[in-house]
Specification:
By secondary structure, the chain is α/β, with parallel strands linked by helices. The protein has one domain: Aldolase class I (TIM Barrel). The chain contains twelve helices and ten strands. Helix 4 packs parallel to helix 6 and helix 9 packs antiparallel against helix 10.
Length: 291
């Protein structure tokens, strides 16, 4: 159901408000460059600093601007199950094609708690759900058996965004739950994930190079592995530069340098350090994105 290059979209701000005009431009940018789907209000979209009203505004605007030309998968995760249900139900009402739910963070639920959390959300809506496993952000790893049980018991859980960093774990997920889509949650591992049966990526670097990211995934899925490998190695230094500081600090800085949107972030995120900005600029210059 979900494949290709799906962008984890930044949230453009202007004077600490949602910049709707820039959001429209970014959606058009992705439609024009072959992006398969857009995720508003994910981690890259600084969802943790958005109010409920802003969260709903960004989702609604993205659906409006996409106008069914590209899939919209709203980030609706929370460490509060009731809140995750509320946000996911709003995404369904707004016309989203799916919802991406990060595993509950900070409160460190058990595997039973993870199962019950996602079960309650899945039962509350009919739209497709993508689970998001990223222990580095949540402090808890969703075990393959847990992912498989959730998917088995709830048919609208159709995919997992895997950012565990473990290809062994991802292989186990595909072995236990071959019916769900495996999406890379780490740009550097997109090609390896595709090679073990993945169907795409939810990408940070696609914010600045959507066509190359899309072309790499499409090339692999169509059997042109040589082209996919070439694009993988072309992208890799740029991908590494996207994480010289906490995401989305570098990608927003890069987008500002390219004139795509401002570099404004919300505290506790801050502007990039000078030394890291130089590293980022070097990678972008080598890639041909800036002169």
């Amino acid at each position: 159901m979900f494949s290709g290059s799906i962008v984890a979209l930044v949230t453009p701000f202007k004077n600490n408000k949602i910049d709707a005009d820039k959001l429209r431009e970014l959606v058009e940018f992705h439609v024009e460059n072959g992006t398969s789907g857009i995720v508003p209000c994910g981690t890259t979209g600084e969802s943790a600093t958005l109010s409920y009203e802003e969260h709903e505004e960004v989702i609604s605007l993205t659906v409006k601007f996409a106008a069914k030309r590209v899939k919209v998968i709203a980030g609706t995760g929370s460490n509060n199950t009731a809140e995750a249900i509320m946000l996911t139900q709003f995404a369904e009402k707004a016309g989203c094609d799916g919802a991406l739910l990060i595993a509950p963070y900070y409160n460190k639920p058990t595997q039973k708690g993870l199962y019950m959390h996602f079960s309650e959300v899945a039962k509350s809506v009919k739209i497709p759900i993508i689970l998001y496993n990223i222990q580095s952000r949540t402090a808890v790893n969703m075990e393959p058996e847990t992912i498989a049980k959730i998917a088995k018991d709830h048919k609208n859980v159709v995919a997992v965004k895997e950012a565990s960093g473990s290809l062994d774990q991802m292989s186990q997920v595909k072995a236990l739950a071959p019916e769900i889509d495996l999406l890379s949650g780490d740009d550097a591992l997109t090609l390896p994930v595709l090679s073990i049966g993945g169907s795409g990526v939810i990408s940070v670097v696609a914010n600045i190079v959507p066509k190359d990211t899309s072309d790499m995934v499409a090339a692999w899925l169509s059997g042109d592995h040589k082209k996919a490998l070439k694009l993988h190695y072309k992208l890799l230094p740029l991908v590494k530069a996207m994480f010289v500081e906490t995401n989305p600090i570098p990608v927003k800085t890069a987008m500002s340098l390219m004139g795509l949107c401002g570099a404004e972030l919300r505290l506790p995120l801050t502007q990039i350090e000078d030394a890291n900005k130089l590293k980022l600029e070097k990678a972008m210059r080598n890639y041909g994105l800036i002169s």
